[in-house]
Amino acid sequence: MNLTIRSGAALTLCALAASTWAQQGQTVKIAMIEGFSGPFANVGQNLQKSAQFLAANLNAAENPAGVKFVIVPMDSKSSPQEALNLLKSATDQGIRYVSQGNGSNVAVPLSGAVSKFNERNPGKEVIYLNYAAVDPVLTNEKCSYWHFRLDADTSMKMEALTTFMKGQPQISKVYLLNQNYSHGQQVARYFKEAMSRKRPDVKMVGEDYVPLGQVKDFAPYIAKIKDSGANAIVTGNWGQDMTLFMKAIADAGLKVPVYAYYAWVSGTPTALAASGDKLELYQVAYNHANYTGRMGDLGAKYKAQTGDDFYFYSIYNGLVALSHAMAKARSTDPVKVAAALEGLRIEGFNGESTVRKSDHQLQQGVWISKWQKVDTKNKYNVENTGYTFAPLEFVDAYKASTLTNCQMKRPG
Amino acid sequence: MEFVLISLLNGLSYGLLLFMLSSGLTLIFSMMGVLNFAHASFYMLGAYFGYQLSLWVGYWPALLIAPLIVGLLGAGIERIGLRRVRRFGHVAELLLTFGLSYLVLEFVQLSWGRAVVPYGLPSELQGPLFTIFGTQFPRSRSFVMLVALLMLGSVWLLLTRTRIGLVIQAALTHPEMAESLGHNVPLVLTGVFGGGCALAGLAGVVGGNTYVTEPAIAASLGSIIFVVVVVGGLGSLAGAFLASMLIGLLQTFAVAIDTRLFDISVSQMAPMLPYLLMVLILIFRPRGLMGTRET
Predict the structure, then answer these.
(1) What are phi and psi for residue A77, nearest 5 degrees?
(2) The Cα angle at residue A261 between residues A258 and A262, in degrees rounded to 5
(3) Residue B142 touches chain A, beta carbons under 8 Å
(4) A397 vs A350: CA distance, rounded Å
(5) pLDDT tens digits for A169-209?
(6) Residue A328, CB half-sphere, CA atoms under 13 Å: how many?
(7) For B237, how many CA atoms within 13 A lie in the half-sphere containing its CB?
(8) Distance of CA B62 to the CA centre of its chain
(9) Rounded to whole angstroms, how far apart are CA atoms A399 and A197?
């Protein structure tokens, strides 16, 4: 009797082990639909290298499913139309995982197309991993069961930023300058909304919008900001609109701290460094530049291999979450993996992070970091400029979390 | 008062920057009738050559050498490409320069990569020149203004007060006569195109470190310099100068106005005003402010 129980238990264990290993060694192709040529090509290239590097370097704890991730880059030239064609091409090739991030203008139609495809092609479902598109709509009005967002969306980042600014009593007048499209408008909207809740005494002394990539000379805006008496600037600008804006601030000797969203994007740190110490710049992002331990090692190895900085940490969380979900589901079938991803807790690069079941937004902490010279504590030399993003404050996941009105349609 | 004065200064300096960018384009158009679509690409080449040379020989020699290289390159392109397609008319020339802009972009991306290059200011141009009401006016901007004024002066003097200018003008209006008097008209045209490109190159060396040097600059500058040239009157140097100043001041002061028109504030429209101005000019005065012929 005793023996039968024991051998039965042993058999069950064996069976468990065998089924746990069912997905072991399988190859999981992830299509990366991104602009690898065109104006944002340098960001796309860093992204591709980061994903391929991570796929090759995950350790056993990070990849419990033991699968082999293969990144299949597909060049969308940053065009939504092209991205939809590439989704078709990916599904034709039998790829069951797609990822995209740069540009919510691409992410929103892509998420819609993935849902539609899955509805019409049962048995061929595709999971969409979004590692950078931050339009809150993707996890609210237009949320989809098949879409998983790894970055923190604009509402979370503004929640975190205002939590940080709440503790800065010297801030009393804020000037908002943003690019005139959905992202810039959302930064302004969510910032104002969160700030009026936390610090109703803070006045918005100016709110300006610039057309994307059209302004060559930001000096008139600097004069206006100075005239407004603002003692903090909040901007979601990126690319040339960010670098020229910062340069104009430094050139005019305007001593007003800037709270920015996209200071780390490839090329921007190089342009910022030209202004030396004249900028007081803070960044709100899921990362900073000075991780130690495992993430620090990965970053250093990446730099040694590619000569580039590693900053797409969300892909790390994405691959770790996928692998854990696959181990949990004991399968690489997206239908089972999507179910396993819901509510999944992972040990991400910022500690514990959870895939929220209600809207598939990864709940995670957000960093406020400061742009400063490299020192003994913060050694990482961003783009070899001698400057770094030093971690200042970590806003915990529960503080950065925002509500969702997502009414998710689940399959079946 | 304080704000008006600073805005005036900003407007003038932005206007002079626009003039610096567009003077070469105007020169080439007025002398040759070629609308050089690759003008902004020559600006970009100037910026990148300036960056590379300043690493090797320092900024000040680069300021001289880089425009020369860009000018020679322009002259070579005129000699090999434009001269051959000229007999097929202006459209062929325009298409050639259009294609050229793509080639230059790819060349730049292959040579220096797609990211921003760390093209810094020399120590002499760092820091503010003066401070007015607590706002610093950077030396780099003042240098841009100076270069623009020098460009205006020297091109004007060259064309109207020297023998070379006389020959150039003669070669344009009466090519057969100039040729029968023993002047090499094709060579003059090569020189003019090269000269225009050199001006773009010079603007690039100066503008590249005052602003940002990256492969996107050609595309982002391309549109605004055409506005300057069209508003000023195609082919008029004085017109281009006037248009630059007008656009510079208009845009700078518009930023300050928060009055709302049709639910968007004037400041929001400011970067679009030059284009609006261009449309109005094309409707009501198609030859531009000081142009001599219809576009």
Answers:
(1) 50, 30
(2) 105
(3) no
(4) 10
(5) 999 999 999 998 889 999 999 999 999 999 999 999 999 99
(6) 19
(7) 20
(8) 19
(9) 14
Q: Tell me the two tokens of residue A369.
A: 């970091």
B268:A209 CB<8 A: yes
Query: Looking at the partner chain, which of B13, B117, B271 has a beta carbon nearest the beta carbon of A215?
Result: B271
Q: Does pTM surpass 0.95?
A: no
Query: Tokens representing A106?
Result: 């691409």
Contacts of A226 in chain B (CB under 8 A): 134-135
Token pair listed for B101 = 């802009």
- Partner residue opposite A41 with nearest CB, options B14, B114, B211: B114
Residues of chain A found within 8 Å of residue B212, distances taken between Cβ atoms: 240, 243-244, 247, 271
Read off the tokens for A23: 């997905």
Report the C-alpha gap between A101 and A32 in whole angstroms.
9
Question: Is B114 close to A271, i.e. CB distance below 8 A?
Answer: no
Could you tell me if B10 and A223 are in contact, meaning their C-beta atoms sit under 8 angstroms apart? yes
Determine, for residues B135 and A252 on separate chains, whether the beta-carbon distance falls below 8 Å.
yes
Measured at the CA of A61, the angle between CA A57 and CA A66, to 5 degrees, comes to 70
pLDDT in tens, A127-179: 999 999 999 999 999 999 999 999 999 999 999 999 999 999 999 999 999 99
Question: What amino acid occupies position A29?
Answer: K
Backbone angles phi, psi at B294, to 5 degrees: -70, 145
**Nearest-angstrom CA–CA distance, A196 and A190:** 10
